[in-house]
User: Which sequence fits this backbone?
């Protein structure tokens, strides 16, 4: 099974901070690229993220559904059927991705990552 | 309703015209379109209109209540001149200053333009950290000013507007 790649596309340095956090838990992840939207127009961002799509299965993670990172990934996904976009990236979601990507088929992996991202949001109230 | 600090409510001129090379994104939707209850929100770009995938993507980002549309310059002019936006709290988003000038030349009355973000690329120089302008952009903005259009720069609703002057 081909290892599914990750491209994490976020505002500012959120993506690299998340990968740093992943590295503390699982060690530095392979096949994982980070793109910041800092200083880039939508057209430039589409071009920059597109460089990281090599025709192999890839999940593009974005922070905010509605932002330029999401727009760029969504537009690319329409042209690259081997990819998927998951927004609202968080640490539980990435830990799920990196631990399951070699064991689940692509579609199931994307679904599991989304579910685990949701599961990571819990509330405790008095 | 949270109101951007840059203008008093009665100073707002519609359509609200924004130049932003990220087109539709968080600042535009959350800060402006939703904050000011704008509708319709028109993405005016011949390039985007000719790209069905990009049009679909960007339209999805505009909440239903803001009534988004992707239009060519000609379509926008035709509708505006027919009075379609006369009483509307409309917003028009453009990718480059030259498109605003083209719309003005097509006869659409525009009172002011806000440059919300023009990012660095070859041939553009920094005017503000979020506004990089080429010679061509500067000529275009001067021409707009000459036609009586006020030009401001402002990225976020909470930051102070900076008047553009040559």
Assistant:
């Amino acid at each position: 099974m081909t290892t599914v790649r990750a491209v994490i596309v976020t505002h500012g340095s959120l993506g690299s901070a998340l990968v740093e956090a992943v590295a503390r838990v699982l060690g530095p992840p392979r096949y994982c690229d980070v793109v910041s939207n800092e200083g880039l127009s939508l057209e430039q961002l589409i071009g920059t993220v597109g460089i990281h799509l090599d025709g192999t299965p890839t999940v593009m993670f974005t922070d905010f559904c509605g932002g330029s990172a999401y727009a760029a990934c969504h537009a690319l996904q329409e042209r690259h059927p081997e990819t998927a976009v998951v927004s609202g990236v968080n640490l539980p979601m990435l830990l799920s991705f990196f631990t399951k990507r070699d064991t689940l088929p692509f579609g199931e992996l994307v679904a599991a990552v989304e579910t685990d991202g949701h599961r990571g949001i819990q509330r405790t109230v008095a | 309703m949270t109101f951007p600090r840059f203008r008093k409510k009665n100073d707002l001129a519609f359509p609200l015209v924004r130049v932003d090379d990220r087109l539709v994104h968080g600042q535009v939707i959350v800060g402006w379109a939703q904050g000011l209850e704008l509708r319709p929100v028109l993405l005016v770009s011949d390039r985007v209109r000719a790209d069905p995938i990009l049009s679909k993507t960007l339209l999805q980002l505009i909440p239903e209540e803001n009534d988004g549309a992707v239009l060519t310059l000609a379509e926008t002019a035709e509708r505006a001149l027919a009075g379609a936006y006369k009483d509307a709290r409309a917003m028009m988003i453009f990718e480059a200053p030259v498109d605003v000038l083209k719309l003005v030349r097509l006869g659409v009355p525009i009172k002011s333009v806000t440059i919300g973000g023009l990012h660095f690329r070859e041939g553009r120089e920094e005017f503000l950290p979020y506004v990089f302008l080429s010679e061509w952009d500067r000529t275009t903005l001067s021409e707009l000013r000459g036609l009586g259009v006020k030009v401001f720069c402002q990225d976020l609703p909470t930051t102070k507007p900076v008047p553009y002057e040559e």
About this structure: The mean pLDDT of chain B is 91. The longest helix of chain B spans residues 135-146.
